[in-house]
Each structure stands twice: as structure tokens, then as C-alpha cells.
Amino acid sequence: MHQFLNLKKSVRISTEFWDVTEKAGLFGVTVDGIGDGRHRVLADGHEFVNMSSYSYLGLDTHPGLVRAAADAVLAQGALNTSASRLRLHFGVLQDAEAALSDLFGVEAITVNSCALAAWTSLPLVASGLLTDGVPPLMVFDKNAHFCMNAMKPSVADEAEIITIRHNDVEALEDLCRRHRQVAYVADGVYSTGGVAPIAELLRLQERYGLFLFFDEAHSTSTVGRNGRGVVLETMDGFNDRTLIITSLNKGFGASGGAVFLGRRGAREWVDIALRSAAPLMWSQRINTAGLGAVLASAELHRSAELTGLQDRLQANIDLFDGLVDTAERGDGLPIRFVQVGSEAGTVELAQDLMRAGYFVSPIFFPVIGRGRAGLRVMLRSNMTAEEIEGFCGLVNSLGRRESAGAGAA
Amino acid sequence: MHQFLNLKKSVRISTEFWDVTEKAGLFGVTVDGIGDGRHRVLADGHEFVNMSSYSYLGLDTHPGLVRAAADAVLAQGALNTSASRLRLHFGVLQDAEAALSDLFGVEAITVNSCALAAWTSLPLVASGLLTDGVPPLMVFDKNAHFCMNAMKPSVADEAEIITIRHNDVEALEDLCRRHRQVAYVADGVYSTGGVAPIAELLRLQERYGLFLFFDEAHSTSTVGRNGRGVVLETMDGFNDRTLIITSLNKGFGASGGAVFLGRRGAREWVDIALRSAAPLMWSQRINTAGLGAVLASAELHRSAELTGLQDRLQANIDLFDGLVDTAERGDGLPIRFVQVGSEAGTVELAQDLMRAGYFVSPIFFPVIGRGRAGLRVMLRSNMTAEEIEGFCGLVNSLGRRESAGAGAA
What we know:
Chains A, B: This is 8-amino-7-oxononanoate synthase. By secondary structure, the first copy, chain A, is of the alpha/beta class. The first copy, chain A, is built from 15 helices and 15 strands.
């Protein structure tokens, strides 16, 4: 018991900080969207720009995608077939999965969210069904996303499990040497910043047959040809020793999540998944609104518009990097962690920024170690230079005050 | 290992039957919806009526709900806020949860599906956070839905766990006598037919403080005042020893799922859940299309239209019960299991029915024991008498042939 989960302890540890966050007005804010990552607080009309939005290309308010979502519901006259997809599904589901598969050169199955993609595929990998019947040693990166960590009890019921330090290729190689079959579970791009050592991991795959399981939720769309993300961009074509889960919300701008398993045209794994992976058997998948947006976004990902948005995002990242120093500076990715230090100071800073018209997520224990609290900034293609400069100016001036305060404490 | 899960074994056991089902053309059929539970196969234009649709009140194609879904996307101009709900959420999320809470006299939290409602709340109950800090003995009914069984590894990491025979009140009472804190996990209405002994369970709750956890996915909307389902209909007001998860798709006709925890106005549990239950913290919730439909459906549930639909459903159930004998006859619920016997015979019968214009799900091992295969019929308010009579006539004539064949085998 309590090998992986301990909700009572988690709540005890984090409850005070959530209280502080809530009192600061930064918890569960109900808003209206006014476009381009800007919002209006329903309670008092205060307007702000979201500096922690994961819609990296601004596709969440893209008029074409929004229209496509509404049109798909009306065209089908329903949100769902009211049956398991294993029985009946609409053409738009088939079309959306084909479009994703073609776009990324993989076989894609869609699910309701990236978390459900983890639920669908982690026990499947652990069972050994994708590795010649041999359950692999399941090696989790310590920083792998919570939605994958939350699956550990199920994974441990199918295979041996171990957690290693973040990006510890050496430890992983050692395990590869000592075990017949190893699977490594990691994020491609980490939700609090940073990237997996993908080239080195592919080298281990080449040498030892290492199975790679990546969460690309923060990478899809934002980087790579056609927005294929850091993993596919680094690989020389997809292979049958790799599985990717990702979000179709975040950068992609639609709804739901996806599992990429097998090269385009290799349906064996998809068939196994459909017949065995629990969430795929149940009633709900992405509704027709989400599927309409997936189709429109897949088309956009093939166009020059995608490249233009990626370029604007890179320009905004460069602008930010020139103004605020972070550990992630220069990595070409949109996530920046501005370390502040104390939890109280971080919340106070976020509160001041909100008053000045900038929402930013304060990040703290248990998401990150104690005393290393800070702000998770997520850059978007549809931020103006004025917004970024204004925000960075405030972070630098208010943040210095915090540092001084922390030093004096 | 393999205490709860064994995907390799599950696939080995069920693969041949899925092959048979697929060959029979009853697996993953891609269709267009043509209204009122009728579909057209995209591949060949064949039209059929779905006799296994869980849209018990026909709300999946209700023009008002479909329109509300599309309108909500357009009104908000986005499918999601691109932030965790713990940070930012749209007014339509707040409105939808308030409408559900008012409708059913509970505190309702929405999630992406009923399966995610199980993921959200089963570890929470097991942790003891809702039972004065004491982790209860978690007692699962053997027939509790797969989405709850799939959570057993996580539940077992928080509390002691045991599975008892279906509807075995005596065994449950014995456990209540011998344990300080017990929680019982069951369906209100079972997905293959039948109902929990709710009055007796409430008696155990009264006597021993038993915590009750119900999946009401197949019950919400179809029965009870305002469609509140069998559990709330039997209870004398909601209480703090009961938690309900349900679907907002199925009978309700929208998207997503919900957790009912606490009487309307008692927010303590909601606050605990929001700060601790993993799926609630992540990026995706019901998209604005689904939330628009939830709001419209909640309004419909307060109207005479709901009562009219429930009455028509009951008339259709009565019509069916007068024509085909099942174990469920007379229970007032829309799920009927027509036992056939052999798996091959069941698939053949389903195939013949499909040719004649009726889709019905063949149910077999591992969903149900070997040699007890049959058809899962789900009645709807928007079936015509002709459809029901035609279907029942074929089941009786073709089914007799199967029985004769089975006898001879």
C-alpha cells in the first residue's frame, strides 16, 4: 500500500499552498475569452493576457478551427454515435484518424484526452503485447508527467517498474545491459520546461532494442516539420519500438488526445489496442465538435500557415529570452520557468502581475521541490511584442524586489 | 503482479471472438447518422436502426441540444481555455456544473467521461479523505463496470480491496459488521441489465455507516424525477455517505461525465477533489460544445418534455417485454439481455438481424461467462412500434432456429 499513491498525504502537503493561491485570486478564475490568449474575469471585468496558455500557436481561438468544430456537430447532427467505437462510429472519426496518421506518418488512434492516451497505452506496453510477448522492465523518468505517474499502479500489475533520475541516460543504459526488454517512459518536452535526450535515447534503442514511450503533449505542433514534435523530428521515420501519446488540445488547438503506434499502414498494434485497451472500448471518444477541429487543424498543419505560426512563436521565444534569463534560454521551446524561490513570494509576484494584466501560473511544491517555486511562462505565436516586453519588464522589476526580500529573510 | 490486470491473457482469450465479430461485419462499422437512432453504413449505403443505442431518450439527435452544442463553441470562440480548470475556466463550465447541481440536488463536478469520473473519485474514496481520514475496506461488486474494475490497482494502493458476488447484500453486511469503515462499489443500473438492491444498501448505510459508490451511467435521465436515476430516486435526499459517478453522454445526450459528491451547497468534498484528484488538475475537461449541450439538456430535464420522453420509453419497454421474454422483463429499465447460448450462434443471429436492418450488440466472453452469449438490446423513447415489433419478430423466429441448433449440437 502507498507504493505509488497517497492522496491523504498529497492533500496534507499541498492544502495550505492552494489556500494561499485561492486567496490571491489565482485559483479557478471564471473568465470569458476575448481572443488571442486574452481573457476577461467574469466577476469584475478585469482583462488580462494569459502568459501560461499552452495554446502555443494560438490555434485555440483560430476562427477556422472554431467554425469547423461547430459545423461538424451540425453536419452530423449528434455529438456521438451512442455506441462503443468498436461497434459504430461516425465517418468523421475515421477521417480525423486518417488525417493524423497521414500527417505524422504513423498509425494514430484518438481518445478523449492525453491522460486517457496514457491509460490506454501504458498497461498495453507493460503487458508485453507490443514487445514479442515479453513484459519490459518499465523505467519511468522521475519527471514524467503526472498522467503517466498516475498509471504506475496499473503498470506495476503488468510488469516490473522502476523510476530513475531525470534524463539519466547512463542509468538507463545500465538497465538495458542487465534486462532482456526495457521500456523508457518520458516526456519529449517536459511540462515545466526542458527536453528529453532524444538522440541518445534513439542510440540506446538502436543498440539494445530499448522501447521508447514519449508524452509529446507540449511538443506536437510547436516544433518540427508539419508540427510533428521533437521526437518524430529527431527520428528517421517512426518505428515499432516507439509509442507516442500526445494532446490534440494544447498546441494542436482541437480536443482530445492521440496514441501513435506503428508506422503508417502497420495496423497490427492498432488492432491489438482496440481489442484490449480499456478506454478505447467504452462509450466516449472525442465528440464531433472536437473531431471537426482535429480535421481542420490537420489540414492547417500541412500548410504554410503552420510554418508562419511556428516562426512567429520562435521570434517571441527569442524576444523573451533576450529579456529574462532562465535555465531554458535558447532551447527553442516555448516553456520557460522563472525561478523565484519562496512559495509566498511567488504567489505575491503572480498576484501583482495579474493586477497589471498578466496571468501566469505560480508553480510550487508538490509540482516542484520546496524553496524552488517560480512562474511557468508559456509563450505563444499570438502574443504581441508589447505584451512580452511589458510582462518581462514587470517580472524583472518585481522579481528583483522578491530576490532582495528572499535574501533579507 | 497480475492481481487485477492481465492484458496478454485477456487478448488471448478474446481475440478469436473479435475476429469472428469482425468477419461478420459487426466490428467498427463506420456510419452516418440519419436521426432517431438510425444509421447508414458508409461503405455500402445499408440502412439500419440501432437496437443497442444507449441514448435511451433519443437526446443524442435532439435538434435543440445539437444546436446548443454548436452555439456554445461559436459564442465562446474556443473549445477550451488552454489552461487547467484550477487556473482558468469559462463561464459555461461553471454554469453547466451549477445547472447539474441544482437539477439533482447535489454538488456536481464535470469531467471528460464517466471513466474519468471513476479515475477521479475511486482513489479519493479509497484514500479515506471522504470518510474522516479512515481508508475504507473497498468492496467491489463482481459485476461493477469495467471502468471501475480498471481502477482496482490504484484503489489497492490506497486501501484494502475485496470483490464480492453480484448483489450479495448478506456478504456485504457481514463485512460491515467486521470492519470499521466499508465502501461498496457498484452500478446503480448494470450495463448488461439489472439493478442494485438500493433500498437494502441504504439500510446498511443507515445501520453501519456504509459508504456507497454508484455508477449511474445507465440510469441517469432514463428514470426518476427530473431523470435523477434509480439511486437518487430511492434516497430521501443526497447524503455525505454516498458518491455517484455518471455519464452526461448516454441518456443525458451531451458529452462527458460527472461526479456527484455532497448535498447541494456542501462544497467541502468538491474542494478536496479539485485539489487532489488527478484528472481534474489536467488540461482537458468537457469542451464548450459538450458543455453547451449539458446546459440545454439540464433545462430539458426540468421540463414536461423529459416526462414525455420517459413515458414513451416506458411504453416501448412494455411493448418489448410483451413480445420477447428476458430475465429483466418488468423491471422498468431499458436494458434487456436476450440470451442465445453459443458465441457463434449469437454472432450469426446478430448478422442476420443486421441484414434485416437491425444492429444489435452481441455480448460474449469476457463480458459474460462462456456459453451464455446473447444480444444486448437497449430500448429508446424514439423507436417506433413497427421497429420494435419487427425486431422482436425476427429475434423470436431466428432465435428459435438458434435454440434448435444449439440443442442439436
